[in-house]
Amino acid sequence: MDAVKFLKEEDRMCDKYKYSIDHTCSDCPCYSKRNGTDEICNSLRKTDPEKYVEIVEKWASAHPKKTRQSELLKAFPNAEIENGVAAACPKSLDKNVECESLSSCDECTRKYWLAEVE
Prior knowledge:
By secondary structure, the protein is mostly helical.
């Protein structure tokens, strides 16, 4: 995993767990009681960066980013894809979508289909 992708996955993992019920990140795999070292994540990142990277990469692999497009393709695996994005106009499927472009749908279609969902 390259550095930029790693940082994005690290942020995604932190966002997932930092709002836990007890506000301690206790469900996070980097949490001191879960990472096998009893060190808090910021400390582990400095003292054992290899282990820290391994934890984040393992989590990212087990929790792939879900997008509207990935969910669409589960239901419609043969949906038309253009330039890496579902060709379906979001406005035709979602009445709450407001068209953001008068000349081209490319930008708003990409933004809509690649948005992360729960």
